[in-house]
TrEMBL record:
Pfam families (UniProt xref): Peptidase_M41
Organism phylogeny: Bacteria, Thermotogati, Deinococcota, Deinococci, Deinococcales
Domain Peptidase M41: 2-185
Superkingdom to which the source organism belongs: Bacteria
The protein, known as: Peptidase M41 domain-containing protein
TM region(s), chain numbering: none
InterPro entries: Peptidase_M41, Peptidase_M41-like
Length: 209
């Protein structure tokens, strides 16, 4: 059984992802939000299917921001962070690094490919081309800059909508799962039909009385 403290952290984490997905202009909107464990995940936010053939730099920057928004929500609400964002950081870092090394989206390094799929062992992903130590440092610095900028955006977003985040978490803990439409209704300040609380009961939330 999931500890109630962990369930609350998961709720804030997933609502953070959902808030960014719903409000950032180039992100995929929310399809589903749940705190029901599945596999190793304590909960998840499912975005709408993405059928774009070409992804722009602003869309990639919003993908990074959405990936980091769960961690940002934990920091804003609890003033500390947990280990639950490991996969989120891997996803965000992978996107940022590919922007810099594969897709020519680096302002500092230029429109060059520093990684290639050609000759990769057993399809093990893009392989970095030989580069100088100075270039490698520039890659690392630009990846960090992309991630820091995205994290700053979602921190501001969550602080701006913190009262709404608390209310959505309250409802999510009671219902356990929200559809994209239900999430949109709550984010806009609307109400959902009351349902019986889950067996764990009503939980006091940070910042609420």
């Amino acid at each position: 059984m999931v500890r109630e403290a962990d369930r609350k952290v998961t709720a804030y984490h997933e609502v953070g992802h959902a808030l960014a997905a719903q409000l950032l202009p180039h992100a995929n909107r929310v399809a589903k939000l749940t705190v029901v464990p599945r596999g190793r995940a304590a909960g998840f936010m499912m975005p709408d299917a993405d059928d774009r053939l070409h992804v722009t730099r602003p869309a990639l920057e919003d993908m990074i921001a959405v990936a980091l928004a769960g961690r940002a929500a934990e920091e804003v609400v609890y003033g500390e962070i947990t280990t639950g964002a490991q996969n989120d950081f891997q996803q965000a870092t992978n996107i940022a690094r590919r922007m810099v090394t594969e897709w020519g989206m680096s302002d500092r390094i230029g429109k060059v490919a520093l990684a290639s799929d050609q000759g990769s062992y057993l399809g093990g992903g893009p392989q970095m081309q030989p580069m100088s130590e100075a270039t490698a440092q520039e890659v690392d610095e630009e990846v960090l800059a992309l991630i820091d900028a995205a994290y700053g955006r979602v921190l501001s977003l969550i602080r701006e909508h913190l009262n709404g985040v608390h209310e959505i978490v309250r409802v999510l803990l009671r219902r356990e799962t929200l559809s994209g439409e239900e999430f949109s209704t709550l984010l806009a300040g609307g109400q959902l039909e009351e349902v019986p609380a889950v067996s764990l009961g009503k939980v006091p939330l940070p910042g609420l009385t």
